[in-house]
Amino acid sequence: MIISKLKLSNADIEKKANTDLENFSLKTGKDVEFPLYPEEIAKALWGIEVDYRDDLEDEVLGLFNSERQVVLINTSQNKLRGRLSFTIAHELGHVSLHGFLFNEKDKKKLSSINKCPRWLDDQADTYASCVLMPKEIMNKKLLEIGAIKDSVVNLKVHSRELIKFFGVSNQALEIRLSSLGLKIIGGLYDQNQNRNTERLLDELEGDREARILKKR
């Protein structure tokens, strides 16, 4: 039953990310602006604080402490703004998508889920990508700056402007564009070989295991 509740499609995750953005706007009474600061969403939607720490294990990027309701961020591993935003958004993905696992009565379920972190982290990665770079906003921005032609985006020309607008890293941008079915030239990887998004995630997100879903 638990596993079935967690088997979400990318479309499901995109919808949940959009709903969270809408709820954030309703709660704060202001439009969502980019680059997005996921710290604000954490506080507004769930009352979660973000704590920046220098005493976490080197291999840990970030983690969510369910008892303290705080996202712990390893400052030594998140020195770039794009990386920092993605790490926080990733942890919020666990809260938004997998939050029921943190209920007091579900402690044993949380422990069992830790045995299969890969696909849980895949979902949290997808959530982070969707919430930081919503599909509608991305498509609008691509058209606005003339970055798309025949479903192809030239990152040699437009990556700087897109990265500045969304406040993400090069690799996060490339993964998101790929997930939207767009072909990329001038990126970190040549995607004209019809590589699927899942394979690209495997190649670019080698630090996935450093994100730990647990209590601390």
The span between the termini is 26 Å
CATH fold title of the largest domain: Arc Repressor Mutant, subunit A
- What is the CATH class of the largest domain? Mainly Alpha
Domains, number: 2
Task: Please give the radius of gyration in angstroms.
Answer: 17 Å
Brief summary:
This protein has 216 residues and is of the alpha/beta class. The protein contains 10 helices and 7 strands.
Describe what this molecule looks like in 3D.
It is globular, with a radius of gyration of 17 Å. The chain contains ten helices and seven strands. The chain folds into two domains: 2-133 and 206-212, Arc Repressor Mutant, subunit A (Orthogonal Bundle); 135-203, no CATH class. The longest helix has 19 residues, at 10-28. The relative contact order is 0.14. By secondary structure, it is α/β, with parallel strands linked by helices. Strand 2 and strand 3 form a beta hairpin.
Keyphrases for this structure?
single chain; 216 residues; alpha/beta; Arc Repressor Mutant, subunit A; 2 domains; four-stranded mixed beta sheet; three-stranded mixed beta sheet; globular
